[in-house]
């Protein structure tokens, strides 16, 4: 049984840069169809809690190759199993990654024990817009730009 289609979300993780403390310290998600709505949290755990409450979200990250390190690590630490074909069983995930490590997508199945499976799909928007987010904002003449942050600060 396939999961019902969910909303499309633009998602970003903010992560530490310390070798011995590599983690998501904040995440944010905004539905593509409503830029005035925004959800956020302060850990990878809260991201996955939100994802399981949301109705089968389709999450677009810009450079999924980076962010997937955190999602994959969380799944493996929490009993999920990677499968080579499209994930369908409870607590499984599948990925589409090229031999040169180009990360296109992931499908995560949280629960498939009833008629309404709980899933999440991850996609890489950089595969559609192969430029920095700053350049995306400029190219589409958006009324806002990507902000800068000092990643070395606590």
Global outline:
globular
Main beta sheet:
8 strands, mixed
Low-pLDDT segments, ≥5 res: none
Helix content: 10-25%
The overall strand count is 8
Question: Pairing-aware structural class of the strands and helices?
Answer: alpha/beta
**Biggest sheet: strand arrangement:** 3-2-1-4-8-7-6-5
Order of helices and strands: EEEHEHEEEEH
What kind of oligomer do you see?
A: single chain
Q: How far apart are the termini?
A: 45 Å
The radius of gyration computed from the alpha-carbon positions, rounded to a whole number of angstroms, is 16 Å
Mean pLDDT: 89
Strand content bin: 25-35%
- Secondary structure tally, helices: 3
What does this structure look like?
- With about 150 residues, the protein is of the alpha/beta class.
- The chain has helices spanning about 45-55, 65-75, 135-140; strands at about 10-15, 25-30, 40, 60, 80, 90-95, 105-110, 120-125.
- Strand 1 (about 10-15) and strand 2 (about 25-30) form a beta hairpin.
- The chain starts with 7 loop residues before the first strand and ends in a 15-residue tail after the last helix.
């Amino acid at each position: 049984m396939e999961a019902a289609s969910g909303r499309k979300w633009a998602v970003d993780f903010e992560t530490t840069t310390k070798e011995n403390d590599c983690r998501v310290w904040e995440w944010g998600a905004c539905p593509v169809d409503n830029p005035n709505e925004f959800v956020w949290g302060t850990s990878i755990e809260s991201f996955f809690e939100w994802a399981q409450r949301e109705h089968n979200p389709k999450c677009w990250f810009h450079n999924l190759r980076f962010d997937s390190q955190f999602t994959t690590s969380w799944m493996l630490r929490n009993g999920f199993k990677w499968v080579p074909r499209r994930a369908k069983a409870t607590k499984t995930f599948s990925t589409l990654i090229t031999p040169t490590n180009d990360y296109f997508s992931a499908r995560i199945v949280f629960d498939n024990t009833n008629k309404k499976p709980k899933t999440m799909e991850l996609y890489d928007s950089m595969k559609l817009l192969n430029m920095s987010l700053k350049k995306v904002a400029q190219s589409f003449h958006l009324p806002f730009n990507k902000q800068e942050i000092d990643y070395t600060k606590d």
